[in-house]
Amino acid sequence: MNEVSSTDPVLDAILQSENEVSDVLEQICARTRAETQKRASVKPLKEIAEEAKNKKTPTRGFARVLKEKMAKKQMGLIAECKKASPSAGIIRQEYDPAMIAVQYENAGASCLSVLTESAYFYGNNEDLKVAKEACSLPVLRKDFILEPWQVYESRAIDADCILIIMAALKDQEAAELVELATCLELDVLVEVHNEQELNRALALDVSLIGINNRNLRTLKTDIAVTQALAPLVPPDRIIVSESGLKTFDDIHKVQSIGASAVLVGESLLSQQNAGAAVRNLLGLE
């Protein structure tokens, strides 16, 4: 785990030392549940549910876009917008999700991922809204979705897809969130990191299986995770390799073992021109 700098408030908040913080995911989820409870006290479940159900604008078909890429044997790129992360700290001091979304779309990204988690990634719901308004790509709400209230909120803020992390949920909890998302016409990307989580995810009625090369408990990345798990995923599912992907060779490597899409953020956002970074990653320059 990276050594924490006292000048970085994101890292200081959660990574005081490797001994003190052994499970980053657990800390984030605890805070997320508390924050969700607080927000639900202001806008009760019934109210946010009505707001979500009354949305007239159809979702953009996040999974459909990736299936079309898969059918053409082209790699789908889910390009991520985020200001910071627990592993990297502040990635962009001047963070403009609308501008980044436009650059991503023009460079050939298939979908967007927008961080809305506030304490550790410095995101918010407005980031998702402005990014979606700026482009025509379908958008994943990248957050720690743990409660039905958050699923309704995701539809209310115009997300097209949500993330469900198997390491953070029990089987019944995950199944209920998937069912609710489906009822709201939201796609679901189910994220796993090991074979046990993969087997649990495959029991869910979802087409998108995200294999996260980053261990959310230690923050270390290893593409070998995708190499180990991808062959275990049935061909009717879409494999999305996530984290630790920095070069065209990395993309080619995971594609050769069955990944049909990748989710990349930090290696794109750390470069001055996010659009040029996308083209380099996809081998278009």
UniProtKB/TrEMBL annotation:
Enzymatic reactions: 1-(2-carboxyphenylamino)-1-deoxy-D-ribulose 5-phosphate + H(+) = (1S,2R)-1-C-(indol-3-yl)glycerol 3-phosphate + CO2 + H2O
Protein known as: Indole-3-glycerol phosphate synthase
Native source organism of the sequence: Commensalibacter oyaizuii
Organism phylogeny: Bacteria, Pseudomonadati, Pseudomonadota, Alphaproteobacteria, Acetobacterales
Single GO molecular function: indole-3-glycerol-phosphate synthase activity
SUPFAM superfamilies per record: Ribulose-phoshate binding barrel (SSF51366)
Key words, A-Z: Amino-acid biosynthesis, Aromatic amino acid biosynthesis, Decarboxylase, Lyase, Tryptophan biosynthesis
Family, as annotated: Belongs to the TrpC family.
Coiled coil: none
Superkingdom of origin: Bacteria
Database matches in Gene3D superfamilies: Aldolase class I
Major enzyme class: lyase
